[in-house]
Write a structure and sequence with these properties.
Strand order of the largest sheet: 5-6-1-7-8
CATH topology of the largest domain: Alpha-Beta Plaits
CATH class of the largest domain: Alpha Beta
Largest sheet: 5 strands, mixed
Helix content: 25-40%
Strand content: 15-25%
Number of strands: 12
Radius of gyration: 24 Å
CATH architecture of the largest domain: 2-Layer Sandwich
Distance between the termini: 45 Å
Number of domains: 3
Order of helices and strands: EHEEHHEHEEHEHEHHHHHEHEEHEH
Length: 416
Amino acid sequence: MIFLVDCNNFYVSCERIFRPDLKNVPVVVLSNNDGCIISRSNEAKKLGIKMGEPVFKINKFMKENNIRVFSSNFELYGEISNRVMKSLSKFSDDLEIYSIDEAFMSIKYSSDYSIIAKEIISNIKTDVGIPVSVGVSKTKTLAKVASSIAKNIDQNYSILKNELRIFQSLRNLPVHEIWGIGYRYSKFLNKNKIFTAIDLVNRNKNWILGNMNINVLKTTQELRGVECFPIINVPPSKKSITVSRSFREDIFNYLDLEKRVNDYAFRCSKKLREEKLRAYTLSVFIVTNRFKNNNKSYYYGFLSENFLASTNNYIDIVSMSNKILKKIFRRNLGYKKAGVILSDLSDINEYQSSYLKLPSKAQDSLMNSIDHINKIFGSNMVKLASQNFHDLSNDSRKKLSKKYMSSWKDLMDINI
């Protein structure tokens, strides 16, 4: 059977681990630039706050209802996610980490899956402090259905095993809520009188394949109990790495924009090195605010260039990002967003070299030293001179909680 373990209101739950005073009160977590709501406690949901709601529209409402508001603390959430996944690995070797707060597992050693589901819920609550829901069924797609049911019942787990329960669940599931069915296809299906999951299951395979694609057919087969999406233990190699941000206020000055882009290039390099990869192509994009000046000055600048040889060197990557930015920057425009993309990735030991740029042991040693210092003393301890020396990411995260698990100064005091 396939288990889907999904952390409940994950970002809010992470904040509550270190703040017991937040229990049973409405809490929301905001997007990276404090613009929209991306996580809500059950209490906030009951007040009618919607996912993705712009904060400026409901500021007054949140103050009137004493809703606790937090900026997104991704450093904290990432560490807690790692601990959740480590706890899950005790139950099965067939573990697929699907997202920061979800994982699929294949478990075949038990006939009473409710006992395993209860153990998973109890262990993660005890080991990590996060509440989870568990959906169990024959396929990934049916496990998703079971998980959505589990979130709305007190026991926090649901097992879809017998045909009658599966039929009843699919009959009540709107087609737009099926995992893998997007907005465009759900509209098309509704036009063809397919409103629920059971309506889709009853449609002919040839009709589905002729009007949509193979993935929709696979999803339909999974709803029928036929496994089409196996557990993937080893995630596929990344095709690209992107770091981008929207700015709280438009940036007009080139040097300010350059520092931001340099930061993103450095972070891309860090991710690249963590994955033990090299990149051959670097792209930079900058975007103006399409909602200002009646769209007359809207500009999207994008350019890609190749390195002489694939690299994961911080200096090479940041230097190339500067070179590209100078080519696409236009004066007298206010930029709302920028980003850096590394692509054409290869294994760190399997790449095309160039006689114009020979490997340097001294450079490799320097890069390794930067990694070591930043890992031990903090991610921003060593930077390049062209980067920000003030962490501007915190300027747009005004309600950021402490880095309880990654900063010495934020470690909690315990009185015994």
